[in-house]
Amino acid sequence: MDQQEQTGAVAEETTPGVPTRGQTDVLLRTICADVLGLSDEQVAEFEEDTGLFGHLPELDSMAVAGLLTEMEDRLDITIDDDDVDGEMLETYGGLLDFAHGKRTAG
């Protein structure tokens, strides 16, 4: 039995030069903490189904603009107006899927 089997960890497939979903997750959590003024502990508890817009008082319509701008800057992505919808901002998992998709689409 190898170490991965012993720990139950699931390794992500990696392609050189392409960020993993885990790498995107770490950066996105940092962005959320910085932009929304959340503690690292609070952001660490985010799960795929953690509600964002409409659930976090810190994430109001003004904060959305700041969040998207920081995502563009720190994740080196471009977010078009047409990309932004309620589904993308509904849960942390939705936002992570969106961000990771943008990072790997290039």
**Helix share bin:** 55-70%
Number of separate strands: 0
Indicate the overall shape. globular
- Helix-strand makeup class: mainly alpha
Distinct helical segment count: 6
Task: Describe the model.
This protein is mainly alpha-helical. The protein has helices at 3-7, 21-36, 40-44, 61-75, 86-90, 92-105. Helix 2 crosses helix 4. The protein is globular and about 40 Å long.
What's the helix and strand layout?
Elements: H1 3-7, H2 21-36, H3 40-44, H4 61-75, H5 86-90, H6 92-105
Give a short summary of the structure:
This protein is mainly α and 106 residues long. 57% of the residues lie in helices and 0% in strands.
Key phrases:
globular; 106 residues; disordered N terminus; single chain; mainly alpha; 6 helices
